[in-house]
């Protein structure tokens, strides 16, 4: 395993932008920027052993500075939407940035995705850290936040989030990588998606949860057995052609749970997403400049959780660190099968 650091020619407000590569002995690797703690490459083999990038990225680093699609970004303080850009906590009403119509999305205008993180390397792990001051985006509390990236010999990407606040506050991080297991040769409509879930959140036309938890059985959201995305889309009755849907995981225990799997037949590649967080937002990239070129599998807490008492929301108690984990296993079923022979 090796971790290399490259200083780029870019900087923001006097802070240099660095590119980090964590590579295992097989040649597979991930690359990360300290801008937005952004995942920019996830390079793994196909069934023929060809190493290719399976996430969307920009060719020029400067394009990340004006990105509004959260390509590969670390998202927070609160991933997904908070309806009406407000919530109440301990009798105090907080007004948030309205950066998505009347709502707050992905932490507002000062989210983690636009911060230049400090960094250090320890034991082949990349540790990125930043601070979010009290009132930033409208959220309470001075928040210290870190993202720890590591990559295994088996092509598993580990993302660990740590956060501590001096005031009680809400917290909901995620990674916003867009997967395309064909390495961009095709769109994601023929990718096969499987979700380990029995229910999903109903939302309105602005993707704000209504509060209803609906069963997925027999619906356009029934990916329990694994279905091509294009096969299920015609069954939808919502305005959105694809999916921007929160699926609730099958286990409520704070252990790593299998939330979703994605596979692509031609390349033989797959990814499996696990997390300590309770569910996964599946977004098929409908609003990308080229729709359906990537699909997000965003492990996170319930969207708009602070406004729904029956939703599972991550609340930070003062001066008490919380830790949340996402694991993304990537591989090729053809190669895995050959290794068993």
Topology, element by element:
Blueprint: E1 2-12, E2 15-23, E3 29-33, E4 38-45, E5 51-53, E6 74-75, E7 81-82, E8 86-89, E9 92-95, E10 104-105, E11 118-122, E12 125-132, E13 143-151, E14 156-165, E15 169-170, E16 174-175, E17 178-179, E18 192-195, E19 197-203, E20 209-215, E21 227-228, H1 229-232, E22 244-249, E23 257-263, E24 269-275, E25 279-283, E26 295-300, E27 315-316, E28 322-332, H2 333-340
Antiparallel strand pairs: 1-2, 2-3, 3-4, 4-5, 6-16, 7-10, 8-9, 11-12, 12-13, 13-14, 14-28, 15-27, 17-26, 18-21, 18-23, 19-20, 19-22, 22-25, 23-24, 24-28, 25-26
Task: Give short descriptive properties of this protein.
Beta-galactosidase, Chain A, domain 5, 28 strands, 9-stranded antiparallel beta sheet, mainly beta, 2 helices, 6-stranded antiparallel beta sheet, globular, disordered C terminus
Description:
The protein is mainly beta. The protein has a single domain, classed as Distorted Sandwich (Beta-galactosidase, Chain A, domain 5). The protein has two helices and 28 strands. Strands 11-12-13-14-28-24-23-18-21 form a nine-stranded antiparallel β-sheet. Strands 17-26-25-22-19-20 form a six-stranded antiparallel β-sheet, with no helix packed on it. It has a five-stranded antiparallel β-sheet with strand order 1-2-3-4-5, with no helix packed on it. Strand 1 and strand 2 form a beta hairpin. The longest helix has 8 residues. The two termini are 26 Å apart. The C terminus is likely disordered.
């Amino acid at each position: 395993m090796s971790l290399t650091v490259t200083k780029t020619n870019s900087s923001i407000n006097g802070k240099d932008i660095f590119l980090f590569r964590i590579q295992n002995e097989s040649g597979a690797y991930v690359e990360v920027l300290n801008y937005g703690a952004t995942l920019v490459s996830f390079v793994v083999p196909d069934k023929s052993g060809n190493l290719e990038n399976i996430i969307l990225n920009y060719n020029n680093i400067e394009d990340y500075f004006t990105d509004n699609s959260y390509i590969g970004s670390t998202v927070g303080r609160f991933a997904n939407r908070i309806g009406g850009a407000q919530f109440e906590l301990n009798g105090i009403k907080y007004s948030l940035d309205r950066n998505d119509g009347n709502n707050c999305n992905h932490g507002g205008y000062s989210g983690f995705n636009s911060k230049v993180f400090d960094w250090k390397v320890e034991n082949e792990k990349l540790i990125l850290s930043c601070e979010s001051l009290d009132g930033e985006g409208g959220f309470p509390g001075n928040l210290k936040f870190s993202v720890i990236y590591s990559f295994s010999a088996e092509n598993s990407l580990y993302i660990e989030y740590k956060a501590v606040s001096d005031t009680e506050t809400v917290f909901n991080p995620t990674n916003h990588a867009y997967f395309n297991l064909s390495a961009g040769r095709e769109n994601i409509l023929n990718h096969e998606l499987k979700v380990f879930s029995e229910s999903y959140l109903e939302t309105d036309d602005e993707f704000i949860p209504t509060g209803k938890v609906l069963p997925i059985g027999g619906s356009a959201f029934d990916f329990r057995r694994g279905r091509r995305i294009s096969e299920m889309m015609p069954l939808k009755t919502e305005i959105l052609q694809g999916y921007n849907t929160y699926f609730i995981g099958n286990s409520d225990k704070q252990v790593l749970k299998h939330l979703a799997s994605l596979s692509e037949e031609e390349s033989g590649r797959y990814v499996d997403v696990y997390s300590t967080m309770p569910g996964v937002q599946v977004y098929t990239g409908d609003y990308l400049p080229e729709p359906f070129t990537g699909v997000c599998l965003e492990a996170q807490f319930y969207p708009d959780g602070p406004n729904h008492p029956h939703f599972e929301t991550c609340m930070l108690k003062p001066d008490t660190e919380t830790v949340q984990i996402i694991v993304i296993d990537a591989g090729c079923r053809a190669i895995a099968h050959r290794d068993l022979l």
